[in-house]
Design goal:
The complex is a heterotrimer of chains A (about 180), B (about 280) and C (about 375). With about 180 residues, chain A is an alpha/beta fold. Chain A has one domain: Pyruvate-ferredoxin Oxidoreductase, domain 3. Chain A is about 40% helix and about 25% strand. Chain A has helices at about 15-25, 75-80, 110-115, 125-135, 140-150, 155-175; strands at about 1-10, 30-35, 45-55, 65-70, 85-95, 105-110. Chain A has a six-stranded mixed β-sheet with strand order 2-3-1-4-5-6, with helices on both faces. Chain A starts with a strand and ends with a helix. Chain B has about 280 residues and is of the alpha/beta class. In chain B, helix 4 crosses helix 5. Chain C has about 375 residues and is an alpha/beta fold. Chain C folds into two domains: about 5-190, Rossmann fold, CATH 3.40.50.970; about 270-380, 3-Layer(aba) Sandwich (Rossmann fold). The longest helix of chain C has 18 residues, at about 145-165. Classes of the chains: A alpha/beta (about 180), B alpha/beta (about 280), C alpha/beta (about 375). Chains in contact: A-C, B-C. The interface of A and C includes residues 33 and 60 of A. Strand 2 of chain B pairs parallel with strand 10 (about 230) of chain C.
C-alpha cells in the first residue's frame, strides 16, 4: 500500500507520514517505511511525505504509484494525481483542493475548517489523519491515536486527540 | 658526592634512547624543553598523568623526547587532538608544545576556538619567526621586512601578535618570554600548568640556521644578545600593545591571568543537569 | 524480521547514533553538514545522558583530530559527516591508520563532486573511503541498507575498529539515513561489544606497535606505559624511523596485512536468490533495495537473477567474486556513481565473466524497473 501525503510547508505534512507509519510499525505490528521529502521543496512551497505499509517485507522504500493520495493543497493534488492508480483513493481537504475532472474514488473533508472550529488551525493535519484512518483502515484507530499522542507535545495531547476523533467520525460517515 | 657521569638528573624525564635530538646547534628548543622539564619536576607532576601533544615542525619533535604519553600529530592539529584527549580523559594534564607556523598558520583556527571554549590545556607556542624545518620560509609571525626563503625581498605581510590573538580569543593565562629568560619561562610554565583552562605561553626562540643568518644574526649568541638588549618586562600590559617589530623592543611578561569555567566544567555541569531530569 | 527486543521507529541517522551508544561510544566530535547533521544533533541530545561528551568542533579536520585524541584518551569515538567534510578529514584518517587508532566515521553520502547536491543521495565516495588519504594503508568500510542495519552494523563497525585498531568508515547514504523503519533493539546483554586489547606486560617490556596475532595491544593515555605515538614512519616501539626503508616496509605491510589477511572474517555479504542465478546484481546501501525488488520482478518473469549485497565494501571480497564468477554468466553492478564498485568487481572476476554498470549519477536512487529493464536486456542479449 503506497501512500502519499501532499500539501504545502507548514501544514504538518511531513509529520502525517511519520505518524501514520509509526502507528503501523509500533502499534499495529505491520511493516512500514516512511520517507520525508528533503530538498529545497521542504522549506515552504510544496511538501510531501511518503509511506508504504505492507504485511510482507518492503524492498523499495519509495512510492512509485500511489494507492492513496492525501492532498491538502491544489498543487499537492495536481502534482501527484497523475501517479494515482486507476483504482486508487484520493482524499482531499475540499476547501483547499478543487478537483479537475473528478474521476475515481474521492473522499472529501473540510479538515482545515474543522480544525479552526477547534480553535487551532495547526491540527488540520491530525483531523485529516483521523479521516484517513476511518476511510482507508490501513492502520487501526487505536494505533493511530497512540502514535499521535506519542508524537505531539504533552500540553497539546488533548487537543490532538480531539482533532483525530473529529476527523475519524467524519470518515465513518463516508461511503464510496 | 659521587657524580655518575652516565646519568643526568633530568634523564628520567627524557626518552634517553631518543637522544641525540634533531635540532641544530644554537636552536632555542633545548632551552624550552629544559624549562618545561624543570617545571614538571618542581611541580612533582606524575609523568603517568601527563600527555604532551605536538604538531609538525622542529618544535613538533619535542613530544618525542619527553618520557610521558606523547603524541606527534598532523600539521596544525595538535590542539584539536589535545581537545579530544582531555575531554575523553580529564585526569590527564595535557600540554601542547608546537611552533608558530603549526599553531597559528595551518592550525590557527583550532587555536582560537580552543581558547574560546576554554579547553583545559596548556599551549606552549615556540615562535622562531619562520618555518625552520622546511628551510626557513615565511611564517605567520615573521616580522615585517624580515628575510626568509619565500620573502627574498623582505616580508611584506603583517605578522600576528600571538599574545594578542590568545587574549582576544579568550585564553585565561597569557605570557611571553624569550629563551634568554629561562628561569622566568620555567616559572611561567609552572603557573600555566597549575592554571585551570586554556593557558598560553609564547616563547621567542632563536633559529640561527634558517632565520638568524638571513637577518643579520647568524649566530645563536647574536640572537640571545638581541633579546638581552631589547627585551622589556611589562607584566599586566594589554597584549595589544606588545607587537613585535624588527629591531624594536620585545615586550615580555605575564599579560593575562583570569578565572573562567572550563569546557570540562561545563560538560560535567551539563551531565548533572541532564541526568537530574 | 527480527522480533526479539524493543521495537523502535527510527530513521537511519537515529539508528546509527543509538547503535553507536550501544557499542560503547562515549565521545562524538563533529561539524554540521547536510545530510549528516541529524546524527550530530541526536548525539548532542543523547551523549550527556550517557555520561559521554559531545563537542561541535570548528571544522571536520578538528573533528577527526579530536576523535584520534579521544581514542588515545581511552574512549570509543565517532564523528559523522558527508562528502565535503569527509574530504577534509582525509589527512587525519591517514594518521589514524598509521597510528592504528580505533574510531568510526559515519559518512552519509550525498551527490558530488564538490558541493554537488547537498540534500540528495549519492554513492560516489566508495573509492575515497578506501584511498582518500595519501600513502598505503587499509580501512574497513561498511554499508547499511536499512535503519535496522544502521543500528546492527554500526555496532559491528565499532567492534571491528577496536578489534583491528583501524578507522572504520560507515558508508551510508542520504536515503538510508533519512528513511524511517522498524528497528528492533536487542536486550543489552545480547549485544556483542568488543573492547580493544590492552597490554598486560610491565611498561619496560611493552612494545606499543608490536603485533601479537596481527594486532598490538593498545596502551592509552594515563595507563603508565608512556607511549610515543607519531604519524611518522615508526618502529614497533613507536619511535620515528624516517630514513629506514626496512621499517617503512614493516609498518606498511603490517597496517595493510592485518586487514587483508582477515578479509574473510571481515567479509559480510548477503546473497538473495543466488542459488541458481545466471545474472547477478551487485549493490549496496539504498541501491540494494531497488536491486532486490528488481530481482523479484525478474524471477516472476522466469529470469534467473540474484542479488549480491555488499554490507562490507572494503576490504573488497576479491576471492568471493573470483569464485562467484565461475557460476554466473553476467554481473551487473548498480550504484549511484559512474562505476566504482564495478571496477573492483571487474578486477576480482579475472575476466571469467563480463561485468556491466547500471549507473545513477546522484540526486535519486535507482528505481526497481530500471534495474529490471537492464536484467531483461542482458537476458535477451544472451
Amino acid at each position: 500500500m503506497e501512500i502519499r501525503f501532499a500539501g504545502y510547508g507548514g501544514q504538518g505534512i511531513i509529520l502525517m507520514g511519520n505518524i501514520a507509519a509509526k502507528a503501523a510499525v509500533l502499534y499495529d505490528g505491520k511493516n512500514a517505511v516512511y520517507t520525508p521529502s528533503y530538498g529545497p521543496e521542504a522549506r515552504g512551497g510544496a511538501a510531501s511525505s511518503n509511506v508504504i505499509i505492507a504485511s510482507e517485507e518492503i524492498d523499495y522504500p519509495y512510492v512509485t504509484s500511489i494507492d492513496i493520495l492525501v492532498a491538502m493543497s491544489q498543487l499537492g493534488y495536481e502534482n501527484n494525481a497523475p501517479l494515482l492508480k486507476d483504482d486508487g483513493l484520493l482524499i482531499i481537504d475540499s476547501d483547499l483542493v478543487r478537483l479537475k475532472n473528478g474521476a475515481g474514488k474521492v473522499a472529501k473533508i473540510q479538515s482545515t475548517r474543522l480544525a479552526e472550529q477547534l480553535g487551532k488551525r495547526i491540527v488540520a493535519n491530525i483531523v485529516m489523519l483521523g479521516f484517513f484512518t476511518a476511510v482507508t483502515k490501513v492502520v487501526s484507530y487505536e494505533a493511530m491515536k497512540k502514535a499521535v499522542l506519542e508524537t505531539v507535545p504533552a500540553k497539546y495531547k488533548e487537543l490532538n486527540e480531539k482533532a483525530l476523533e473529529i476527523g475519524y467520525r467524519e470518515g465513518e460517515k463516508w461511503q464510496e | 658526592m659521587e657524580i655518575n657521569a652516565t646519568q643526568h638528573p633530568m634523564d628520567k624525564y627524557l626518552r634517553a634512547d631518543r637522544i641525540p635530538h634533531i635540532w641544530c646547534p644554537g636552536c632555542g628548543l633545548g632551552i624550552v624543553l629544559n624549562a618545561f622539564l624543570h617545571a614538571i619536576e618542581e611541580l612533582k607532576i606524575d609523568l603517568d598523568k601527563l600527555a604532551v601533544v605536538s604538531g609538525i615542525g622542529c618544535t613538533g619533535r619535542i613530544a618525542g623526547y619527553i618520557n610521558t604519553d606523547s603524541y606527534h600529530t598532523t600539521h596544525g592539529r595538535a590542539i584539536p587532538f589535545a581537545t579530544g584527549l582531555k575531554l575523553a580523559n580529564p585526569e590527564m594534564k595535557v600540554v601542547v608544545i608546537s611552533g608558530d607556523g603549526d599553531l597559528f598558520a595551518i592550525g590557527g583556527n583550532h587555536f582560537i576556538h580552543a581558547a574560546r571554549r576554554n579547553i583545559d590545556i596548556t599551549v606552549i607556542g615556540v615562535n622562531n619567526y619562520n618555518y625552520g624545518m622546511t628551510g626557513g620560509q615565511l611564517g605567520p609571525t615573521t616580522p615585517l621586512g624580515a628575510r626568509t626563503t619565500t620573502t627574498p625581498y623582505g616580508n611584506i605581510e603583517h605578522p600576528f601578535n600571538l599574545c594578542h590573538v590568545a587574549h582576544a580569543a579568550g585564553a585565561v593565562y597569557v605570557a611571553r618570554w624569550t629563551v634568554l629568560h629561562a628561569v622566568r619561562l620555567k616559572n611561567s610554565i609552572k603557573e600555566a600548568l597549575n592554571k585551570k583552562g586554556f593557558s598560553f605561553i609564547e616563547v621567542i626562540a632563536a633559529c640561527p640556521t634558517t632565520f638568524g643568518r638571513r637577518n643579520k644574526m647568524p649566530d645563536a649568541l647574536d640572537e640571545m644578545r638581541f633579546y638581552r638588549e631589547h627585551s622589556v618586562i611589562k607584566h599586566g600590559i594589554d597584549p595589544a600593545e606588545a607587537n613585535i617589530e624588527m629591531g624594536k623592543e620585545i615586550v615580555v611578561g605575564k599579560f593575562v591571568d583570569i578565572e573562567k569555567p572550563t569546557f570540562n566544567d561545563a560538560v560535567e555541569e551539563l551531565k548533572r543537569k541532564v541526568k537530574k531530569k | 524480521m527480527k522480533n526479539k527486543g524493543e521495537v523502535k521507529f527510527w530513521n537511519g541517522s537515529i539508528a546509527i547514533a543509538e547503535g553507536a551508544i550501544a557499542a560503547g561510544c562515549r565521545f562524538f566530535a563533529g561539524y554540521p553538514i547536510t545530510p549528516a547533521s541529524d546524527i550530530a544533533e541526536y548525539m548532542a541530545l543523547r551523549l550527556p545522558q550517557e555520561d559521554g561528551v559531545f563537542i561541535q568542533m570548528e571544522d571536520e579536520i578538528a573533528s577527526i583530530a579530536a576523535l584520534i585524541g579521544a581514542s588515545w584518551g581511552g574512549a570509543k569515538a565517532m564523528t559523522s559527516t558527508s562528502g565535503p567534510g569527509f574530504s577534509l578529514m582525509q589527512e587525519n584518517i591517514g594518521l589514524a591508520a598509521a597510528t592504528e587508532t580505533p574510531l568510526v566515521i559515519a559518512e552519509v553520502q550525498r551527490a558530488g563532486p564538490s558541493t554537488g547536491m547537498p540534500t540528495l543521495v549519492g554513492q560516489g565516495d566508495v573509492m575515497q573511503a578506501r584511498w582518500g588519504s595519501h600513502g598505503e594503508y587499509e580501512t574497513i568500510v561498511i554499508s547499511p541498507s536499512s535503519p535496522q542495519e544502521s543500528f546492527d552494523l554500526i555496532i559491528r563497525a565499532f567492534n571491528l575498529a577496536e578489534l583491528y585498531r583501524v578507522p572504520v568508515i560507515f558508508l551510508t547514504d542520504e536515503c538510508v539515513a533519512h528513511m524511517y523503519e522498524r528497528v528492533v533493539v536487542p536486550p543489552k546483554e545480547e549485544i556483542e561489544v568488543v573492547e580493544r586489547l590492552k597490554p598486560n606486560v610491565p611498561p619496560e617490556e611493552y612494545m606499543p606497535f608490536k603485533p601479537i596475532n596481527d594486532i598490538a595491544p593498545m596502551a592509552t593515555a594515563g595507563m603508565g606505559y608512556r607511549v610515543h605515538v607519531t604519524g611518522l614512519t615508526h618502529n614497533e616501539k613507536g619511535y620515528p624511523m624516517t630514513t629506514s626503508p626496512e621499517v617503512q616496509e614493516w609498518m606498511v605491510r603490517h597496517i595493510c596485512d592485518k586487514i587483508r589477511r582477515n578479509e574473510p572474517k571481515i567479509r559480510d555479504i548477503e546473497e538473495y536468490r543466488m542459488e541458481d542465478a545466471e545474472i547477478a546484481i551487485v549493490a549496496f546501501g539504498i541501491t540494494a533495495r531497488a536491486a532486490k525488488a528488481a530481482v523479484k520482478m525478474a524471477r516472476r518473469h522466469g529470469i534467473k537473477a540474484g542479488l549480491i549485497r555488499l554490507k562490507t565494501i572494503w576490504p573488497f571480497p576479491e576471492p568471493y567474486f573470483d569464485n562467484i564468477a565461475d557460476s554466473v554468466k553476467k554481473i551487473l553492478v548498480a550504484e549511484i556513481n559512474y562505476g566504482q564498485v564495478k571496477l573492483e568487481v571487474e578486477r576480482s572476476v579475472h575476466g571469467k565473466t563480463s561485468v556491466e554498470l547500471i549507473p545513477k549519477f546522484g540526486g535519486e536512487p535507482h528505481k526497481p524497473f530500471e534495474i529490471y529493464e537492464k536484467i531483461k536486456e542482458v537476458k535477451n542479449g544472451n
